[in-house]
Every structure is written in C-alpha cells, then in structure tokens.
Amino acid sequence: MWNVVRSAVPVLLLSALCAACGAHKGAAGSAAGGRKVLNLYIWSDYLAPDTISNFEKQTGIKVNIAYYDTNETLETKLLAGSSGFDVVVPTSSYFERQIKAGVYLRLDKSKLPNSKYMDPKLMARVAAFDPGNAHGVIYMWGTNGIGYNEKMITALMPDAPLDSWRLVFDPAVASKIAKCGISVLDSPAEMMRGVLNYLGRDPNSQKEGDLVAAQAVLMKIRPYIRNINSSEYIQALANGDLCVAVGYNGDVMQARDRAREAHNGIDIRYVVPQEGSILWFDMLAIPKDAPDPDSAYAFINYLMTPKVVAAISNYKRYANANAAAAPYVLADVKSDPGIYPTAAQVHDLAIQLADTPEHTRELTRAWERFKTGQ
Amino acid sequence: MKRLRARFSGRGLVVALPYLWLLLFFVAPFVIVLKISFSEVDLAIPPYKPLFSWYAEHALAIRLNFNNYAFLFTDKLYADAFLNSVKVALVSTILCLLIGYPMAYGMARARPRTRNVLLLLVVLPFWTSQLLRVYAWIGLLKANGVVNNVLIRLGVIHNPLALLYTPFAMYVGIVYSYLPFVILPLYANIEKMDWQLIEAAEDLGCRPWQAFYKITLPLSRNGILAGSMLVFIPAVCEFVIPTLLGGPNSLMIGRILWDEFFSNRAWPVASAVAILMLLLLVPFMMWYQSIQARETAGPSG
User: Fold this and answer.
1) What DSSP letter does each residue of chain B carry, written as one string?
2) Which of A109, A271, A359, B169 could be stapled to B245 by a disulfide with Cβ–Cβ 3.0 to 4.6 Å?
C-alpha cells in the first residue's frame, strides 16, 4: 500500500520542478528559431483579444506574456535584477520609486514616433515625477473612488451622502450602513490618501500629525468594515455581498458589468468623492536589463497607435491617454465618468507620489493596527 | 581496489546526494538570507547595501548592521505575531491529530483491499494544486456559498453565517490541507503494530479503551510525533491559507514577513524576521530529533 505513496512522491516532485521551470520560461528572452521575442509583464486582463496577435503579424516578433496582480510582485522582480522582461506596466507611485532605484532605461524618443499622439496635458502630469517623460509613457489611467449600491444603502440610510468619503470614514454614516457591507482596499498608501482627502489635508502629506489624525479616523470605523481586500470587492459588489467598496474605477466598472450580465437587479455606480481623490497612471516602461530593448520600443510604439489603443479602451473600458485615439473610442466609453475622468478631475485630483521608506514603514505599521483593530 | 571504487560510486553517491540537496536548497539560501539580514535598505538593484566593500587597494571593509534584529524587539508587533502563529499552529496540530488519528487507525484495521482504496483517497487530493483546493473552500464558505445555501434550504438558519474571513475558516483550511501529513505517518506506524499485544491485553482483562490507552497509544507515539512536526512547523509559517480564508485581523508571522518584504521593501528586516523565526523553531526540531534518536537507539528499533 505504501507503493501508492512512493509512486506519488516522484510525481509530486516532478510537477513542482515543472512548475519552477515553467515560471522561468516566460523570462527566458532567447529568440526561438532566430525569431525575435518580446517578454511582456503586465496586469492580467489588460489587453484586447487581438492586440498581441496583430502585433505579432505586423512585426514578426513573438510575444511571451506573464501576468501579475500586485505592484509589489512586479517591483520585487524588478529590484531583484535580471527580471528578463522587456516591457512592464507599473503604476505611477511605484514607477517613480523604481526610476529612483535605477530600474528603467532612459527612453530614446526617436524610436517612439507615435509618442506625438499622446495627450500633452496628461503627460505633463506624469512629468511631475518623471521629468521630460524620460522613462515611460502612459498606458491607461483613472481614479480611485467608491463603488456603491444605492438601493442597498438608502434602504438603511435614506439621506446617505453618496458622493462623499463620509460614506466610509464618518462613523455616524458607516455605522448605519455597515450591515450591507463596506470594503476598503488593502493598500495603506492609497487608503491613507483617501482619509487625508476626507480630512481636507494634503493627500501626499508625510507629516506625522496627519498620519496620527488619519489613523484615529481609521480606528473609529474599523468595526464597520467587513472586508479589507484589493480584489474581492469586484465580485462581492456584483453579487450584492457589499454595498460600498473603496476601489479603482476600472474594477468598479467591471463589477457593474458583471451585475448587468447576471441580470440580478443590482445596480453598481462609481463616484469620485467630492473631497477629492487620487489619479493613477499605469506606465509602459523598459527595464535597463531588458534582453531585447528594440522589440520593447516596437511594442510600446505599437500600443501608442491610436486605433490599437482605442480598441483596448473600448474592450477593457479603461481610459487611454492618446489624444489622437479619441475619434475611435466609443461614445459611451468616452462619456462615462466612471471610465474617463472629467477635465475638472484631471485638473483637481492629486497624483499619488512615492513615500520615503521611513514613511512607508509608518504607514504599514498604522495599517497593521487598523487591520487587527488594536 | 575494485571494491573501493564500487563503494565510492554506489554508497558514496547515495550518501552524498541528500547532503548535496541540503547544501543547495537549505544551506545556500540560508547563508544568502543571513547575509541580507545584516545589510541596510537601499533604493537600488538589489534593494540593500553590500556587506563587503573594497577600500583603497587591499582593504576589505565589512559592515554588519545588527539594527534589523534590534528593531524586531522594539515593536510588540513581531512578538505578538510570532506567538499568535505558534498558537494557530498548535491548535491546528491538535485538531489534525484528533481527526487524523481515528482515520489512520481505521485505515490500519481495515481489510487489505479496502486499505489500498482508503490510502489512495487520502493521497488523491495532492493531485490538485493546494491553492486550488484552498480556493474551493472560499466557494464553500462564502455568504452565498454551498454551506450557507444548504443550511438555509434546510431551514437551519435564515440569514447566511459569516464563515469566510474568520479564524474558523482559517482553521478549516489549515487542518484540511495538513491532515494527510498526520494520517500517513500515523497509518504507517499503526499498521506495523503487533495486534497480538492488544489481544494479550484483552485476555489479561483490559477493556478496549484501556488496551488502546495502554498499548496502542504509546506504541504509536512516533507516528504522533512525526505527524505533529509535519503539521506544526509549516503551519507556523503558513501565509497562503490565513491570507485567503482568515480575517484581516489574523496576525501571523508569515503576513509580517510579506509586509516587510513587499510593502516596506525592507529586505534586510524581512530576512531578520526569517532568521529569527528559524532560530525559534530550532528547539522544537531538536526536541523531536532527540526523541527520534532515543527511539532508534532503543531495542525496539
């Protein structure tokens, strides 16, 4: 009878080894049969179905794709060095820090002729932490805000402030609607900015007094928070397991669409709170140690082609930063404030800047206190 | 000469392999982590400062930074997390033993053909990724999941119970995942037992539970210990199951390690936590080893 176990052990070991090899294959970077290879590391579910196949047809470059689901995963691979990736898609504050760590190649603009199509206003906002847009171009962008289910909230509190951070951070409101489920992102840096907006302070403040004040707000609402998670809320909003979720506009839109497809009578809306919030930008960048920078340039240039990026926006419902793509973006996508932030928001909302390592530690510690409620 | 060579190629190789394995997959990573734990955070690739640097021509400077270790004692967080992890691991081990022992016992006493089937059933879940199996529990335990729906349909409850993201769900996940590691050594142990001893005990007037308590339990001590260690040690460091099933307020050392490494990008502090964790587990392992050694040295073999 031990034979069963004995024969199972090598199988287990082998499969573990295979998994390890498989994980490495994506980063191999060698040209198979003389064909050029591009290793792309990107958020899951972030391209149109034909984006890659069209690029392969056009250029003859084969694309290997690997996916990540948190900026931390990407950053750790980049900081460990020799990641083997040619193009990566970090979010703004991480991107800023990674530039400082010397992760990225200084872009040769002559190899990116399509950068002339980019929206100068948006590129200027990103230039705040990447002077001259030297290291990256915007892939998609959006806002942090609140996804909510109006019917469920008003059933508990008819006069709930639906366009305000008070929905989450004011104990008087949160205690009333806690029953239908409130969720927040498991991201100290982003949540703290929301609290600072609620308090009317500078969201990028690293002052100790502001952190203490924000922590006090968080501790008061802790009993009313059901989930602290950065991905579960999509499905939970769509199912009606939650009525309020702090999240990213794209994720909330996804929750809305899932609920619509399920015909379960749940209507999810997205709002950027009136007190202000932060803009996020996902950047296309090339690591310094990329095996094939030329393929990387070709790919980034391809993604800046107006029709290509418009197709991605239409399919994935994320805003692109390509001015020339506007005519090809569907009207209902362009006019949806849950997808395309308004001009006023672009002007008023802050960009999340990178925190110092010391402040990051303080934030993580404060967040641990919030999570454990002590 | 010939014999010597045969010895080298055969036995020597067999003996060397485990050591090579240990060197490659334990000693080498350990030394690397130890090295990083004495370093300082830096915004660079890699994100810590080198320990060794060459001064002028032939002067080697070594900078050892003990702050990372000292830091862990300044904040109660780390001690709390460690104690909580040990508590969770202990409770899980006890639960695994309570559930696994009767199962192993039943298997060992079953007819040989049934035994094979039962053994296969215990091993079968390994064929699916552990991550998938833990995810399956999310589907079972969530608010509109299988368990709640069945209970509501049966009229036992009217509103769904909050099962997921609770300590309960975390224990379910850990016990479920590690149960085979208790059952297999226990089964191997009990199956080898001499059942005539039980018969003898019963002949001499022992009631069944007395025979179990006086004969079976002491004889299966080795299996109990092996199983407990196989559950306890990985459970202390468990990260995936508490993250997926446990509530956000479950403070575990694995979570702290993740925070230090990924959120704070403090590889040196994360390494110090890892080293300290290992050192704190050493006494348990030594204790286990000494019992094992005593057992093998004894006449029972």
Assistant:
1) -HHHHHHIIIIIHHHHHHHHHHIIIIIHHHHHHHHHHTS-B-SSSSSB--SEEEETTTEEEE---THHHHHHHH-HHHHHHHHHHHHHHHHHHHHHHHHHHHHHHHHHHS-HHHHHHHHHHHHGGGGS-HHHHHHHHHHHHSTTSHHHHHHHHTTS-SS----TTSHHHHHHHHHHHHHHHHHHHHHHHHHTS-HHHHHHHHHTT--HHHHIIIIIHHHTHHHHHHHHHHHHHHHHT--HHHHHHS-TT---HHHHHHIIIIIS--HHHHHHHHHHHHHHHHHHHHHHHHHHHHHHHSTT-
2) B169
